[in-house]
Amino acid sequence: MFAESALDRRTIEPAVPVAEPPSSVAAPQPLAGDVGVRDLRRVPIHPDYWYPLAWSKEVKRGKAHGVRFAGDPIVLVRTESGNVFALEDRCAHRQVPLHAGVVDGESIRCCYHGWTYDCSGRCIDVPYLGKERLPNGVRAYPCKEVAGLIFVFPGDPALADSRPLPAFASVADRQYKTRRLGREVKCHYSFMHENLMDMNHQFLHRRQMGMMRARSVGRRRGEGFVEVDYTFTREGGKQPVGEALVFSKDGGENSKDVMTVRTVYPYQTLQIRSGSGTLVMDLWIAYVPLDAAQRTNRTFGTLSIRRPGLPFALDLAWPLLVWFTERIFKEDREIVEMEQAAHDKQGADWNHEVFPVIRDLRDLLRECGGRTVIPIQKV
Amino acid sequence: MFAESALDRRTIEPAVPVAEPPSSVAAPQPLAGDVGVRDLRRVPIHPDYWYPLAWSKEVKRGKAHGVRFAGDPIVLVRTESGNVFALEDRCAHRQVPLHAGVVDGESIRCCYHGWTYDCSGRCIDVPYLGKERLPNGVRAYPCKEVAGLIFVFPGDPALADSRPLPAFASVADRQYKTRRLGREVKCHYSFMHENLMDMNHQFLHRRQMGMMRARSVGRRRGEGFVEVDYTFTREGGKQPVGEALVFSKDGGENSKDVMTVRTVYPYQTLQIRSGSGTLVMDLWIAYVPLDAAQRTNRTFGTLSIRRPGLPFALDLAWPLLVWFTERIFKEDREIVEMEQAAHDKQGADWNHEVFPVIRDLRDLLRECGGRTVIPIQKV
Amino acid sequence: MFAESALDRRTIEPAVPVAEPPSSVAAPQPLAGDVGVRDLRRVPIHPDYWYPLAWSKEVKRGKAHGVRFAGDPIVLVRTESGNVFALEDRCAHRQVPLHAGVVDGESIRCCYHGWTYDCSGRCIDVPYLGKERLPNGVRAYPCKEVAGLIFVFPGDPALADSRPLPAFASVADRQYKTRRLGREVKCHYSFMHENLMDMNHQFLHRRQMGMMRARSVGRRRGEGFVEVDYTFTREGGKQPVGEALVFSKDGGENSKDVMTVRTVYPYQTLQIRSGSGTLVMDLWIAYVPLDAAQRTNRTFGTLSIRRPGLPFALDLAWPLLVWFTERIFKEDREIVEMEQAAHDKQGADWNHEVFPVIRDLRDLLRECGGRTVIPIQKV
């Protein structure tokens, strides 16, 4: 996306070697594309992973905050001691959202008749009912707070401990400055993965970045992941300042920066390393379906940029970088929402993919996704 | 809701004695709740009753006014002589609403091609057609005007005369001052009945009224009605001025005010009597479904307050009472709309009711409601 | 609509003689109306005709413009040489709209990954793919530009050459001044035809035109068309200035202007001729369904008024005529949208037509329409 360089991928990624054709794409496939396989846009995200459902700062001490995962309402409660827990956001009594309620010590009290639940979802008080006759409670979700994000495990709770949380190494490293990105995008999560991984879409950003030519120089696929390496060549326009802040100065064919985009289900990362192997940019991103049809996702991302030698230079330039990335993300949001709108209208996936990396990615998302089918209707 | 007092219910209501448990609620029931019975939220209101469809002042002389009952469009016409009649709001010709038309003497003329109907719905003129060849007309509804409300009988017209209209005794009594309340609320009418009858929901109004503890001290069920008596104890906060205007001064356990909430299908009343048996507050209220799915109702209520000894004191305090009741009703509206939203999302009634009065009320609404099932879809 | 005159239809239209009853309408028919025939509001417009999809000025040189025909997205591209072509508005790759793309010489380039199509829909470039491996392209539509309108043939392209385009004789004639009319109206196209052809709806425009009485004085039906002649008598109010600008001065029963409204499938015309046979007003209009349910149409019309003897008089009066026609069209739009809303609610056509001309018109629209049935749902 940003750098121009020749590739020396062995210094970066000593992974599975892949035979790559001279050009970055394979021969065209029959137009039918994914005939016989299920429609990717109707594959639900798999619930047996940790998903970020809110930024830490959104859940204030002594407050409750309502979120959603694939249509399921979940309340995040930060108790008076500062702990966070996650429950089904629905009082057992009359199903009104608990997030409209009142945090009471380490518990949450429904706003309507005052039914009260602890962090395990147990009902511990009904004001007008004897303690010995308390009704059943509500579902609790495993919940952890990492790197300023509140993660919830919406699937089988017995699997929660065995599933790793993301590491966020660059976020914790003071050599990097991190920007937190988040917005709602009205599309299935799969469009987001495909957008970021297919760097041939630089044409979309021609107004922000000039004419950049991406070149796919390696790809790998393994258990639960797909990744691809790119180098870039400028074919027209000037390098924008927002881009130059971070990456190698325009060096024509001699620059050596390489970008690796990786989907490790269900997350995605984009890393840029300089010719010497230094990680100069590290993006981690997750796309969390909000509604039951999974036609809207909330994006949570951390974008870490390595600080240059000169102290404070990056801080000074930060507003420009924010502006630049916002412009890029706005264009991406608009285009994926157009893709979703087209799918909704067609009632089927007519995608005609010619780029092998994206074909691999689509297979991965299908294989790792939930086993059910999202019921949707043609609009 | 308002008063604190010990109960002496025999002075108030010499009705069916009911064994009441020491606490106001019974032992918890199986979570399944109403298994095997039909979903109350899909029970249509029974059309064979008189329903208020507009305030008298909304239907001006020589004007037509369009309203709805459970999805059926109805036009209320006030003729030049001041009478009101009600017709199907749909011209027989091309089905455009008659309320967009023109009142012509004692008839209504469609705005499009001028077809004209009298109070019985008969077509009495088509300007470009001979009188001897007039087409059929439209349906007429029985219609009466009482206490500033226009009532329509949407069901079998043969039953209209045998069904009583509400009495509105306090509205007519000059010892009372009456406020008219009305608004649209986006929920099934049953949530409205349950909200008003379950005074354990005082927790919802804690910001308006402080912590009030309702105590159910008697309940009765008979043909077409359910009712319950409450006394109240303040557990925290101060008595608000809006409340004190009407009810006994804070008197701790010695006050004797008692509130009776009664659903007499399809209406509801809430009355407060002092220890001496004087009716100090008299609320009559009806919830009229507007749409075919009966997910929105328009509330029509008359709230009558007995004038205190000092002349004009109530008039001076009236704005405060208006403000106070508006705040209370706003909280109630928000919560019942949350209940409806939860039901819509779930596609079923997951209500887990533990309060016997409300269980009785739910049975009553099911038994008295229409025999069909509202077809709804999970959203 | 405008003139008052006795009829001398032989000077105007020497067509099929029709026995007309003394009054302008026939005896009332059974209320059931069109029992046994298909619901006209569910008859799709027939695609094997030329439809205007945009005004020429909307498609600027070097720009693409997205339009719709009955739910099908179509992009109109004006190339750098000024030609216009029409394609399916959906990139073959990921189905995003081509109208968001970039015109490149005589071709259109998708904004996302830069896939490029020529005027025949052939894919002529994928920037990251060898020319020898180009994928299939997109559908192209026959497209012609006439009288400031861009016409597209959405049906079977093999029939395009044999179907005539409208003539627009008055638009090209300098003795006439032409106003272009266009707006979206939220109804099935059939309501538009019926509205214009049934001049008994003058009652609707009573505030603009006073009380005018239309008299049907002749009607004809032939292969693919229905037409009707009217004269008008003023029964109340004064002739408005906007109307007098164009038509005979109020002359009571002696004026001889006659209006002919004609549906020549799928278009409609309204022409007014003076007693001497001069064409004083010539309206051509088409109603193009936009959505798949054909519940919204875009109207394209040309209204040509013959210039009077005094030079510039018409130009000076033009703003008044614009204002007058806008008022009339606004009332028509509101009423046909009410008709559509009633149909949507009822889920069926309850029309009870008593006017023979409109019955003929409805038969014509059913016979000439598409063979499929628009799937709709009761709302």
Automatic annotation (TrEMBL), chains A, B, C:
One short Pfam family name for this protein? Answer: Rieske
Matching entries from CDD domains are given as: Rieske_RO_Alpha_N
Q: Which GO terms describe its molecular function?
A: 2 iron, 2 sulfur cluster binding; dioxygenase activity; metal ion binding
Q: Which SUPFAM superfamilies match?
A: Bet v1-like, ISP domain
PROSITE patterns, per this entry?
RIESKE
What residue ranges are annotated as transmembrane? none
Keywords assigned by UniProt?
Answer: 2Fe-2S, Dioxygenase, Iron, Iron-sulfur, Metal-binding, Oxidoreductase
Instruction: Give the Rieske domain ranges.
Output: 50-152
- Please, which domain of life does this record's source organism belong to? Bacteria
Q: Which InterPro entries match?
A: Cholesterol_7-desaturase, Rieske_2Fe-2S, Rieske_2Fe-2S_sf, VanA_C_cat
What is the official name of this protein in its record? Aromatic ring-hydroxylating dioxygenase subunit alpha
